[in-house]
Design goal:
By secondary structure, this protein is α+β, with helices and mostly antiparallel strands. It has one domain: Outer membrane efflux proteins (OEP). The protein is built from 12 helices and 8 strands.
């Protein structure tokens, strides 16, 4: 064991950069693994989750109004003349969801001392129920808190869906930059060969010095493009690492098998990209019931209508039914308190003649309903338009990928022809330089088209409400 520790220590001293180099190598993950890890550890979800937890605390606080309230009371005192008083009571009340209240009070009283002492004990049970408005302000508070909690949960769910899209964008940004680095490396190799060929041809008199300068310029530009693309790749890797919730020492990267990533996403979605695009062209607002933003505006409309109904009810006089039963006389003063025993039933009402505040509240609530209806209609129209626009874009990407692939073939043929003409002395290397740039641009374009197709499919699934982040967990 000592030898092993010493060996490791010596090796660490001798090769200080070895361990650091090994730790700096990013771990390669696929699209599903990146999304799965982000859904578990990404800091992007912290704000939405904290908001949902806060709303849950407010909801439970509002619900606590319906818990039994127990109030014990103990009073005792004495006067200089020896007169004393003791009062013990226990009150239990329960608020009902209907706005009524159940009360139970038990008490024991003692006055005086000696022969003048008077004692009594008894209880009262009663219930009071509003008849006009069911619920009361406590129920309003609970409903508001529950609505806030539901919206917070919807927002949290929407944040998870948006995280899937963001991770996919960051993932494909890494894939794109890695492919661009490969394209740039190939361009450097071809630029080196062209520069060597131009210098050789210039020495034997088949090319001019201008061709040599032009080839060297192309090589310099290709080398600068490689450095720029490598720096962009490292930045994209850092962004992906932070998004999935990892630290810089445990970075992740993506090789990017675009066909496999698309197949995996189609399998998890239960449909193909083409089928989803075709189905979404004829989307209606009724088929978008799973969109989180539409669920939120629907809930706001329901809440606005409920508030308007409650405001109209407040314009009527409040009437409450009060029923109670009292039993006293459990003591020396039984005969004195017996007259308080029995049932009592009554109606109570308090109505102010000045109803300006209630009338204004009812009118404002009616306006709130109209605003919520307009917001609902506008949100539905925008959602339908977004889905149809995205579906058309997805259908267009299939043709775009094929056209870009054909453009790559044409650019490569043009480059081969330009190289052939240059080798035969039929043209200068300017044609070769232009052809090389055209090939690089065409390859970058087909890569962008392939990535755009997958991203558009993911965006369409989110826009239509069909995206389920839980399917990516494994």
């Amino acid at each position: 064991m000592r030898w092993f520790i010493s060996s490791c220590f010596v090796a660490t001293l001798a090769l200080p950069g070895l361990c650091a180099a090994q730790e700096a190598v990013p771990k390669v993950i696929d699209l599903r693994s990146a999304i799965s890890e982000a859904l578990r550890h990404s800091p992007r979800l912290s704000a939405a989750d904290d908001a949902a937890d806060t709303a849950d605390i407010q909801r439970r606080l509002a619900l606590s109004a319906y818990r039994p309230a127990i109030t014990p009371t103990l009073n005792t005192g004495s006067a200089p003349a020896g007169f004393s008083q003791q009062n013990m009571a226990l009150s239990v009340s329960q608020l009902l969801p209907t706005g009524g209240q159940v009360r139970l009070e038990a008490s024991a009283i003692r006055y005086g001392i000696g022969a003048a002492e008077m004692r009594d004990a008894g209880y009262t049970f009663g219930i009071s129920q509003p008849l006009r408005r069911i619920g009361g302000p406590e129920r309003d508070a609970v409903r508001t808190a529950e609505q806030g909690f539901a919206n917070a949960q919807r927002t949290s769910a929407d944040a998870r869906k948006q995280l899937v899209v963001s991770v996919a964008e960051a993932y494909f940004a890494v894939v794109r930059q890695r492919r661009l680095v490969d394209i740039s490396d190939q361009a450097v190799e071809r630029a080196d060969r062209l520069a060597e060929m131009s210098e050789y041809r210039a020495r034997v008199g088949l090319s001019t010095q201008l061709d040599v300068f032009r080839a060297r310029l192309l090589r310099s530009q290709a080398q600068m493009a490689v450095m720029r693309d490598r720096d962009a790749l490292e930045t994209a890797i850092d962004d992906l690492t932070a998004l999935v919730g990892r630290t810089p020492p445990s970075r992740v990267t993506a090789e990017g098998d675009l066909a496999a990533d698309m197949a995996t996403f189609e399998q998890l979605s239960g449909t193909t990209a083409d089928a989803a695009a075709v189905a979404a062209v004829d989307v209606t607002k009724e088929t978008l019931h799973n969109r989180v933003d539409l669920q939120i505006v629907r809930a706001k409309l329901t809440d606005a209508r409920w508030k308007a109904s409650a405001a109209r009810g407040n314009l009527l006089p409040p009437v409450s039914l009060d029923v109670s039963y009292t039993r006293r006389g459990f003591g020396s003063a039984a005969d004195y308190f017996t007259g308080l025993n029995g049932w009592r039933v009554g109606l109570s009402s308090t109505y102010a003649l000045d109803r300006r505040q209630e009338s204004a509240t009812a009118a404002t609530a009616a306006i709130g309903v109209r605003e919520a209806e307009h917001a609902m209609a506008d949100a539905e129209q925008r959602a339908v338009a977004e889905v149809r626009r995205t579906s058309r874009a997805l259908l267009r990407t299939a043709d775009t990928v094929e056209l870009q692939r054909q453009a790559v073939q044409l650019a490569e043929q043009q480059r081969d022809l330009a190289a052939f003409r240059y080798e035969r002395g039929l043209a200068d290397n300017l044609e070769v330089v232009d052809a090389e740039n055209a090939v690089a641009q065409a390859k970058a374009a087909v890569l962008a088209a392939e990535i755009d197709r997958t991203l558009t499919f993911i965006v369409l699934e989110r826009a239509s409400g069909a995206l389920d982040p839980n399917r990516f967990l494994h």
